[in-house]
Amino acid sequence: MFVSKIFVFTILLISVSCRYLNEDQRPYLIIEDDDSIRIFALEDEADVNEVEELHPLRVRRQAHGNINTNPDGSSNVAAKTPIARGDSNVLSAIGSVNAADGKGGFGSAGAGLAWDNINGHGATLTGSRIPGVADQLTASGKANVFHNDKHDLTASAFATRTFPDKPNFPTFDTYGGKVGYTYNDKIGATLGAAHTDLFKKTDYSAMGNLNLFKDRTSSLDLNAGWSKSVSPYLPSSRWEPSGGISFTRFF
């Protein structure tokens, strides 16, 4: 009976491969299609139609990306193309253009490598160019600290080395991190900080977001929060509000 249900379940999932495994005496079902890989926990071995998804993250298996808008009218474009993959990990080539004004100008552009794990962990190594200002090399990582069907907590950290265009200006490092919480994939909040030794400057941020609409191709979000910078070279340091509505298109 159990084998026959697995067979029926597989037929219903066109172009989908399923694998069944047992880890620590708890049965799992791995569903892999052309676009993603997902892991489910089977609460009852006798009924594979009642499954609990372990993690909402889909490790994408095809080239994909997104375009979103900024409050000033500019756009950000990001793309990711998998180049190597395993059962739980994907290595991808990534590229992005930020603050594109539609007239050939942009704030920055970069490319690099990204590693994604089925459990929500990941890391990136990217090089970027800020026209007329500097080149940057950034290493970042994230870890999914906690996840269930309603709550998700992720921590991330980064380190950036900046190579200014001015020949007499020294290279400098910026490093920081943030913690992000999401409820029901709708409401989120992040706390972050970053420090640059050369300028003795520390940036703090506290942001929130509310998803107004989301489907497989687009998302509309309301973002708001506060940020401030602290440095002996700045005349004042106070929390400044910011916010806006962003529209993201997935492709």
Task: Spell out the blueprint of helices and strands.
Blueprint: H1 2-12, E1 17-23, E2 26-32, E3 37-42, E4 51-53, E5 64-69, E6 75-85, E7 89-100, E8 108-117, E9 122-130, E10 134-147, E11 151-164, E12 172-183, E13 187-196, E14 201-214, E15 218-230, E16 240-250
Antiparallel strand pairs: 1-2, 2-3, 3-4, 5-6, 5-16, 6-7, 7-8, 8-9, 9-10, 10-11, 11-12, 12-13, 13-14, 14-15, 15-16
Give the H and E element order.
HEEEEEEEEEEEEEEEE
Through-space gap between termini: 40 Å
Total helical segments: 1
What is the overall shape? globular
Cα gyration radius (Å): 21 Å
Total number of beta strands: 16
Walk me through this protein's architecture.
The chain has 251 residues and is mainly beta. It has one helix and 16 strands. It has one helix at residues 2-12; strands at 17-23, 26-32, 37-42, 51-53, 64-69, 75-85, 89-100, 108-117, 122-130, 134-147, 151-164, 172-183, 187-196, 201-214, 218-230, 240-250. The protein is globular and about 50 Å long. The two termini are 40 Å apart. Mean pLDDT is 83; it is low at 1-27 and 41-58.
